[in-house]
Amino acid sequence: MQLDFFPSRSLTVYLAKMFIVRIFAVLVMLVLVLMALDLLSATGKILTPEGNGQGEILKYAGLRIPQLISRFLPYSVLLATLITLVTLNQNSEVVAMKAAGLSAHQVLAPLLLTAAIVAAFSFAFNERVVTRANSTLKAWEAAEYGPIPEETGIRSNVYLTDGSNILTAETLTGTGESITLDSVTWYARGPGGIIREQIKASGARYAGPGWTLENPVRFDVGSAETEELETMVVGEDLTPAQIDLQSVDPDGLSFWELSDTIDAFDAVGRRTSEMRASWWHRISGPLSAFLMPLLGSIAAFGLARSGQLFVRAVIGMALGFAYFVVDNAALAMGSFGGYPPFLAAWAPFFLFLLVGETVLIRTEE
């Protein structure tokens, strides 16, 4: 067994190029198919506002494609792993490499290196592109694909509490005292959480204290009467600083912005388990690409002896998809406080890292 972890330079480059081409091909195929299916259901909603046309459809596709790339890049690495290893095995290239004295880990080393580079690219792509696409698309969807303010810090589906009362808004723009809320609903609740009145308004601005509703319409639950008001101020105890904290969308924040937000929540004693789990998953999520060659390696070795190429490929695929199922379940448990945030984000990664290594060592090493 060689002491060098990687095989020769030419073989490393050959395997890495083969692997990266297949990752790109599978990713393009998945994104095109899923984007086409998504447009079938979304095009009608996009074209509903007056004036929307092909440009808005292309805009939607431009915002949706980064989300699809981010979500399905690890799946692409898994499928590319299986395609690459099955091809090498069918052509007896794995047998030739092992006959030359390479261990199973050395055969996989170029694929692991390529997957690590893909994971680093995925992290950078998520931070620079996907977070911005998430925040913009959510704000556009909240505006029902109509015009949205050309400002930074747009958030959608805002839910705020002022004691027992509730203030909701479809979109929020700006920060501090310049915050603007659109499509606002105020729920005034009595004892036991029973809603006494509902007030809808086209928007709201900070009145210092309170929030001035624009064109409010009040519905009294007790009398079932509707009344149009000239102006109304609600939420006098709800400050812009509280809104900045309560309306945070982790998916729309970068890694460093989310870290600062967690610190701000800690400073005021707010619950941060969901955001901490998301923060840790910003690292462990892209790293899942590194696991895929290891989990799919069962498709490369031992096939010539057993003659069960298809069965081993299915086992490799099952291991990969099992990781994604366990990862999503653990992240959900972390968001609800069932698991500590660090454990929720990293336990599936280390568990399947050990599973993959165990299978590889016991069967091939």
From TrEMBL:
<keyword id="KW-0812">Transmembrane</keyword>
<feature type="transmembrane region" description="Helical">
    <location>
        <begin position="107"/>
        <end position="125"/>
    </location>
</feature>
<keyword id="KW-1133">Transmembrane helix</keyword>
<feature type="transmembrane region" description="Helical">
    <location>
        <begin position="309"/>
        <end position="326"/>
    </location>
</feature>
<dbReference type="InterPro" id="IPR030923">
    <property type="entry name" value="LptG"/>
</dbReference>
<dbReference type="Pfam" id="PF03739">
    <property type="entry name" value="LptF_LptG"/>
</dbReference>
<keyword id="KW-1003">Cell membrane</keyword>
<feature type="transmembrane region" description="Helical">
    <location>
        <begin position="20"/>
        <end position="40"/>
    </location>
</feature>
<keyword id="KW-0472">Membrane</keyword>
<feature type="transmembrane region" description="Helical">
    <location>
        <begin position="338"/>
        <end position="361"/>
    </location>
</feature>
<feature type="transmembrane region" description="Helical">
    <location>
        <begin position="279"/>
        <end position="303"/>
    </location>
</feature>
<feature type="transmembrane region" description="Helical">
    <location>
        <begin position="68"/>
        <end position="87"/>
    </location>
</feature>
<dbReference type="InterPro" id="IPR005495">
    <property type="entry name" value="LptG/LptF_permease"/>
</dbReference>
<protein>
    <submittedName>
        <fullName>LPS export ABC transporter permease LptG</fullName>
    </submittedName>
</protein>
<dbReference type="GO" id="GO:0043190">
    <property type="term" value="C:ATP-binding cassette (ABC) transporter complex"/>
</dbReference>
<dbReference type="GO" id="GO:0015920">
    <property type="term" value="P:lipopolysaccharide transport"/>
</dbReference>
<dbReference type="GO" id="GO:0055085">
    <property type="term" value="P:transmembrane transport"/>
</dbReference>
